[in-house]
């Protein structure tokens, strides 16, 4: 293996923006480090900032795989290859062994490790440690290794230790001390005596593993429990949102968000966002950027050309708005604030007025301004308005035609993707339809199943409400496990299970891909061995209505209920 440096350049301008360190080898697995050069303030563009941020999320993948080597590491490296694929490669096993032998031989790379003269690659990986640690959560197995007051094991918005209710508690308390050894379930009375009520609800929703099950680390911000670049970005955004919670006063973020939902071409949506962000190149903004130009308005001679003046208050612009179908009134619209003007256009126009053309009016006002500056062409306001309304009408009619053409094909795609091909009248053994129901405001989660037999026996059904689990997917898993136990209890050996939850099918097919559900999956694997024939298939929601109705109905009951019978009850339907 021979190390080498490869210089990459940005497209077009020839400036160096990154160097990639890689090592030659014949393996298919590729690994690289990206070293960014210091450009200084003049070249520190928005794109480079975004690229550096992406680098941090990618190095989070590397650190995650090192912390959990070897399980899942090869798959994570395959994801990295989609972003960085230099011509030279180094084997995955070699990378992990080198780093482990030099930097974390007897420790965890996710911890703060002091190392002597670390390489650039190792420093790059460690730069993502703070990001990864923000989403780390300790998954409860037996609970023997988790400190109640120090380790992040509470599945709140960000993982954290438990919060006390103010009572005196043992500082060395472990999670297994909160579990009743006889039932292998939480000691609810003890939880209420020690913890904040919010934490009591979260803790009681955690599924406890077997006494021999080891505790584990996982990633909190994905359903599966594995780190992804997307979830790393989501974690960073959540942290920024939390820091902005104490902000008081007018907020333009709702305006910016709505600008991307306006029914118009993408280029006009982007222009609406630019108006709100203040990045339209009017003379006022050009002077702020150090460009020496006349600050006056070229169309009406106003002493200063601002964004709001150009779009709403310039004399030709005012004439266009007055001639349009959008009502104008002094002090209401247009005003001296472009935020107030766009707020009015987005939400305040009465429904009896047709305001659908306003994005095109804004766009063609801006184009008329550019024609005056760059071509010295004065466009008549009536012509600008007619062109804007015509373009709006053509675009809207095209959208209606496109919707009518695609409507049937969308239904066809959905029908093909989830077909009821397995629901044939001739089958052997038993068919069991399962479903879970979950709502964050309810006390219980609902589980339901409906079983039919090939030998003509009356169908049996089950419904139970359990303590509310952590998520809808947890409720689906619990519904399947309970249905399996009921089938085992009835000595049904050949059972085909059906669900309308695609994630549940993926989880059962690839259990190693879902470490967040390892406690459930171990229980599933143990119960699965009791069947001589077992399958789990995905069906459409409308084919699973009976189990869905059972789960929904029992979830809303105020008291704990477990019902298994072959006689339908009126209160369940």
TrEMBL record:
Ranges where the Reverse transcriptase zinc-binding domain occurs = 227-321
Give any Pfam family that matches. RVT_3
User: InterPro entries, alphabetically?
Assistant: RNase_H-like_dom_plant, RNaseH_domain, RVT-Znf
Residues in RNase H type-1 domain copies: 434-553
Looking at the UniProt entry, the stretches that span the membrane are 54-73
MF-aspect GO terms: nucleic acid binding; RNA-DNA hybrid ribonuclease activity
Query: Which controlled-vocabulary keywords does the entry list?
Result: Membrane, Transmembrane, Transmembrane helix
State the protein's name: Ribonuclease H-like superfamily
Q: Which species?
A: Arabidopsis suecica
Q: What is the lineage of its organism?
A: Eukaryota, Viridiplantae, Streptophyta, Embryophyta, Tracheophyta
